[in-house]
Design goal:
The protein is of the alpha+beta class and about 350 residues long. Helix content is about 40%, strand content about 15%. It has three domains: about 80 residues, no CATH class; about 130 residues, no CATH class; about 150 residues, no CATH class. The protein has a five-stranded antiparallel β-sheet, with no helix packed on it. Strands 8-9-13-12 form a four-stranded mixed β-sheet, with helices on one face. It has a two-stranded antiparallel ribbon with strand order 1-2. Strand 4 and strand 5 form a beta hairpin.
Length: about 350
Amino acid sequence: MKLFKCQNCGNTIHFNNHVCLACNSRIGYVRKLFDMSALTSDDDGGWRALADPERRYFFCENATEGACNWLVPADSGETYCLACRFNLTIPDLSVPENHDRWRRIEQAKKHLFYSLTRWELPMPRRIDDPEHGLAFEFLADTLDASGNAEPVLTGHSDGLIQINIAEADDAERERRRAMMGEPYRTLIGHFRHEVGHFYWDLLVKDRGGIPAFTELFGDPTQDYNAALQAHYANGPQPDWQLNYISAYASSHPWEDFAETWAHCFHMVDGLETASAYGIFPADLPAGAIHQADVDPYDATSIDQIILAWVPLTVAINSINRSLGQPDLYPFVLTNAIVAKIDYVFRLIAEARAMEQAEAA
């Protein structure tokens, strides 16, 4: 994620900020510019962004709940920002703890949409494709008539992504992380993983890519429910670290793809953040992108990404060890895993090229 500068005073501002802490200017995200902007109010209740002074904006409707800081062009005819337009269901905000959980969920979802829009990936909405369009439901566990808990499962089905809002509670998410043996269990990770299932349908299945996918990830037609039951009953495949980015990825080719897809997002966004803070390992291999020179979202080769990413992860793991903490990045990128990341990287690049060609 980039760092941003307040156009009014030059102070550093962050992606989730609503106000500049130095000059108290109201702050909003201008999606078309991928930029946070200081704002000035106009006489009609709208805003002018100093990053784009010729255009008038309103805040997304969800800003009234403190759940969004994205701007909507006043001439767009929309009341919600691009990211919030994909919401089908939000939690019951009359329940006190739901409000804060939803706010955290929306922050994580904005990180997802930052990457999706940076890569210019197609995002068909449910309103345009009622059966397969992308949409989100943020739900809480309920009780049936007998008082038994009816849990909401975080997952994806035909473009609809459900997130259990309990995942926004740090203690509950940590409990589930430990119970399931997942080193990375974060809200951002959930969004990146689940949207990977959506893009498998859109970019692999719907575009005739299953044969090439099968060669690398395995047969996606194998019984999914049986595979998950076997995974939870017997554990991951032996020596899974050699071929899968996570233990869960070894459960089924669909999960392998979704985990790999999410990891591609982790790597590129992590490199952009390192660049924003000027963090460059001293011994970058020849051919690696130097984050100051190449935007990782525009990298043309996965080799550039890998050659820059591995030294960075060694550095941050070493810092954590110096502080007595576990490795921040507990993954090993074998050749088999890098081949899968390369597949996802090329899939994203091809989809981006198609979107640009259609827009030209």
